[in-house]
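Input/output pair, single chain:
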Amino acid sequence: MVGARKSLLAVGQGLEKVLKVLRALSNAGIWAGGAMLLLLSHGVGAEIILRRLFDRSLGGMDEIGGYVLAITATLAFSEALFSRAHIRIGILHGRLAPKGRAVLDVIALIGLIWFFSIILWFGWTMLMRNWGLGTRSMTPMQTPLWIPQVMWVAAMALFYLSAVLLFLQGLVSMAVGDWARAASLIGARNDIEELEDELALSAQAGLHQEEPR
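Output:
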């Protein structure tokens, strides 16, 4: 038993290192997504001004906006997963003991992984088809579709890999009896955690406000 526990802890440490890398990639993706949305907002603003004042158009802002929305939304999936920010219906969850909650968390994550594996498969298939055929958008921009799709699929792959590794890390924590750790990885957020986050955000916002003189 002692040897098995040490082996599981070693596996958990290895998974933790990989998860740190994935979390860093997720954070970088959030910043990149925010930058894309900021640039898009400036482009849309310029488009409105040009149309209103000069009867001109940059062209393609609606198409670019669609690509940006798809990519940034998918990049946010991983951050939501790491932050345990996905919405859950917890009617039964909060009434159970830690072991019972952990079982429900595992079932929920299995369902998420299964569902997203289908989406990732179809996304990858579409990317490969458009890459092979050289498919372009049916717009004046004639965008090679593989360009936005490769970023979209990469964001999906990051989310899928993160979900699988979190699932494995959660199982390891449960196997060694660390139920609190399992809950912090794959469990639903409780009211206390939500309140602590709100208080932290409020305090952080207060620090950036200039004190009245």
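The CA atoms of residues 6 and 176 lie 9 Å apart. The two ends are 65 Å apart (CA to CA).
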